Structure of Plexin C1:
Amino acid sequence: MAAPPPALSWALPLLAALAGAAGPQSFELPGAPIDNIEVSGGAVLVAGGSCLYELRPELRPRRRVVPAAGQGCGEPPGMRSNLLLHYEEAGGVGVLLTGWTQDGGACQVWEQPSYRQRLNQSEVVSCLPDGSTAGVVFQQAGAWYLAVAATYSTSADTNHLHCEPSKSDKETVITVRSMVNLKSKEELGIIKRREEPLHFVDALQWGDHLFFPYYTLKARLANNTEPPSMAVLRQLGPSDGGLTLQGHVYLDCGCRSLIISSSLVRQGERGWWVGVFRHSHNAKAWNSTAVCIFGMEEMKERTSSCPSPLTLHFSIVHCKRGLAQVSEVNNDTIIHLRSFDNMGIIQLHMGIHKETSPEGLCLVAVRFLMVTFKFPVYGGCINSMCYCILWFQVRRIPVANCGRFASEQECLSAKDPYCGWCSFNQRCTLKENCTHSNSINGWYNISHAPDKDLKILLSFPAKYQVCTPSFMCVCLFIQSIEPLWISTLGKSEITVKGENFTRASGIKLILTGITGCKPDVIKVRNVLNDTQMTFALPPTRKEAKSICIQANGKKCSPPMTLHYVSLPSCSRITPNTSWISGGRKITTTGRNFNVVDSVIISDDQRSNLTVKGKVVDMMLRVDTTFIPCVKLHYHPDPVFINYQLHTELDPDLELKIYKENDNLNISKTEVEVYLLYMTGAQTKKIWFSVQNITKKPDRSTILCKFKREGTDKIDFSTVKVFVKLGNFEHEVKPTSSHIYLYVLILLPIVVAAFIVTRYKSKELTRKQSQQLELLEYEIRKEIREGFAELQMDELDVVDSFGTVPFLDYKHFALRTFFPESGGFASIFSEEMPQSRDQTSKDESFNMLHALICNKNFLVTLIHTLEKQKNFSVKDRCLFASFLTIALQTKLVYLTHILEVLTRDLMEQSSNVQPKLLLRRTESVVEKLLTNWMSVCLSGFLRETIGEPFYLLVTTLNQRINKGPVDAITCKALYTLNEDWLLWQVSEFKTVTLNIIFEKIPENESGDASQTIQVNVLDCDTIGQAKEKSLQAFFNKNGFLYGLQLDEIGLELVSEEQQRELLDIDGSSEVMDDGIRKLNTIGHYEPSRTHKLVAVCFINGSLLCCLDVDYSDEHCHLILPDSEANKDVKGAGHKGKQKFKVKEMYLTKLLSTKVAIHAVVEKLFRSIWSLPNNKAPVAIKYFFDFLDAQAESKKITDPDVVHIWKTNSLPLRFWVNILKNPQFVFDIKKTSHIDGCLSVIAQAFMDAFSLAEQTLGKEAPTNKLLYAKDIPLYKKEVKAYYKAIRDLPPLTTAEVEEFLAQESKKHENEFNEKVALFEIYKYIVKYYDEIISKLERERGFEEVQKQLQQVKALFDEKKKCKWH
């Protein structure tokens, strides 16, 4: 008496979408989701949309059944299927039960294969949209019965849903009905429940018992912890008939309150129930879901009217909300679970192993199978194919990919129950695919192997949990184990917290490694009380271990993960100094600090500190071991000289505290300042806010501010000021504390005022003389230095800059096709599919492509579009680029189109001004010409121009960084562009730093730490110094350091201090207007004895050139306007004010031009020279084409043809490349580089100009820089044009062969389908105008029909929600 398969609305997938399959076939039910699937009798049954479908194994529809008479599929809306059961009666007659939410929960009985309806009974299943229904058909005394459990009612408010299937008694939950009429009867069995409603998950038959797993609806609430249960019904004797409720049993799966799915495992006479459980709260936690397995016989025996806990065989923690389904393959059991990311299937292979598993069931193997879609619901298998539903679809997927195992050893070692070695074919196959597979000698797999009883093999990254029921009378409850991170030295004491410790015996701690080695069994060290006990853990190697507590000889508690890690180590300390009184907050960076018990500082010599300070050791205590960490430098407590309190703006108080300079590097966050004053007999306190700390050569100043509230007056004669740093607290004395000193101070001020007034005019005259003297000196100095620089300065160009970082062709083409349309570039940048079969089968795209390849149609289409007023210049450029991509593999045809459109353009402009031809990009053909040049010259650009062009960009960067660069504006002293000239710079000098680069894991090519000398400027910010350091590392080693600029820091290391260098810190200078100046290398005053260490960390310091506008908050070399008139004291001119005039520094432009001149000329001449006396085919072809057009139009002015050639090649292509190196190389172009390249590009175009340049003294500097070079360049350009014209003309065959080769190079580069669809969008937008044009022209009748057919095909796609 075989039980039919359970309802499968809850079932989860048996899936393995594996490599080698031709792709799953599918059946789609449009407009309604598929609710149920059942695989039986060699057919696939599907219920959904109020209809029933029978599908063949290949998913071709065989029959559609409409349950409700007079209604079609999908009617009425919202009708759902909640029951689909198949069973076979005597004689092999197939019977199918279908349950629906319509008609109060109707159930129909169908005969197969005719689908004659035997019965249609209402009020059988749940009619609630979210109500549960679970049923099982069983036979008793020769008659067939249906036991159905359903959620008939969820509350008293179900009347408005017109859903009252059990009007007589809403408490009914399980009914037994005869298959003759499906009516419930008291004598057959009606089970009721007075309390809250239930959610039934499944209905199962085991022997003469029926099992219904369920949970209460309130268990879905996060605060409910009631465990799920199993209701057990027992069949009465044949004479009595019917069923009776035997009782319930709790299903404890680690306190998880929801059951997600249910399956029955059968192995001969033994059986196990497999359930997937989930927490009602914290559903995203890694252990929210678990699979738990219980024995059926024990479940039957433990059932009682008062639920009791059940012994759990074992459970597997599963990190996602998934479902399970069980299959039997070759006498073994396979359980399938949805994987952690819902994109795969975990396959649990269960087998019989009596020795290691008393219960008889053990885990043989775990496998991970990939699928290509999410959230499938399993239906079942036919032969080697399995079926599942995915919303509106049924998919057919191969059950295994045996072909991936190449040898017999691989095939059998895989232990895949579906796969075996076929001796006849000598390959790994499914059983049905092996000839003579009925012979045991022909096909064999794990089930035939002598080592069938295998040990547990875990081969996927899941966490495991063995659960202990929580309903036993004396049961250990484990709340926490601390710590769970220890070192490899072990731990003398860990603490376990929980309950019932004093009432348990034989308490042990089980420690199991992930490698499967023999577990460590550790006895309890000390039971402190009923809730705490301690253990000592042994030393071991570094790994994660599973830890659980065992008592009373019972099963272990739910396991936790214990991590053994390496001993802790320190890498850096910030700051590494402290004052003798202590209390300074120190930050230590390192690893594995979570296993440190305490930090020890050796202070034996602290009482004997001298002025120079002492060095003490900081150590880490791990259990009983002391590990050296870092050195800590102790210095004397800071010395505060005095203070000044400014009360003029009372109630706003400003306090300045003066301090002696020291090596403590105190930041403003470490200083606390407060003021005490007397009000009568009461002492009051004011806490100041420390604004900043500025350091000068003679002393440091701490600026503090306070805004008083209220009307209290302060008696400043009673004021006392205190400074607190950690444990150090000190009263600071005022500048003067006696009243008579004010008189002594005031008297000289009065006298001084008199003297100033008397000699005011003389002083003014003297200052003016000094200013003029200083200005004259500065001008003379800058002119002399500029002259010397022009004569002697040479740039050390890096000849070997490694491999040129060329972009691949696709990205080069996209950046030239779509320079401003990043969105289109990203669409076409996507990887092409491996096969073009789908595109080739798409009739709509094929017909559109055929239309585009009709020259007359395409030319007419372009002219029609260009006549539309709202077809903008942007549209024309985009259309040209889409057309270029669509015809990328048909360059011969595209070139013919280019010729036709160019001739048409000449006809339009011939009567106006022929010299303006191709000057702008305002038509489709002009953009098409740009793209055509990019395609045809890409190889020449890469092979001939690329290296000198990259050398120019590299040299420019090197020259700019040779001098000061303002980190805020990116302006530099050395530049080609006057707009980017940094003229507000003061003296600077080169500083040689010894940078220690530590070994990092990311840099596998590097050796151990190495020291490199790096030349920086004293005015460089820390970010700029880091950038130069990384570049120096690359220049020396030939490979990158391995960290980005914002991932490394610089530390200044000496015998006495270790200090982190930052662009902004507590010591940064703050201007009077609140603007903060970036720290420079000179700010930290590194000496030759210092070393700088490049350390790995991420900080928030500013980089070398900021993309964000920080000009309102920070400054670097360009001081804010409020600082422009203040003294800037330079060497040798102390006390004199420097005047800066921009024109004094224009010689820097010329010196930069001279330094890079050889590189610029090398690039220019590589463009306008003919290597081996041969011109690129594209250039020769198009120049000859222009010559022929001029001749045909009888244009005799040579200047016209010269201008045409210049507009079509240098202006249209080369200038675009010269100004945009990021089109060619994988680099980032800065705004400053862009400004310099614009000057070079201007000189390049001046060389092609026929106009004579007349430049005066007021001409722009970018014109003046190359004024003397342009005449020579012009001669070379004319010679270049003449040399091309004198070359033998190319034959048509030569041109077409070149174009065909280029076309072949670019096959599969772009998704032409996307380009065609973008072209189609323009056709649709102006469809009426295009059709009208075709109707007016002769010979376009057939083309017009084709266009209409294309539109009809695309319209049909749109209806099918095609995108």
Summary: The chain has a mean pLDDT of 78.
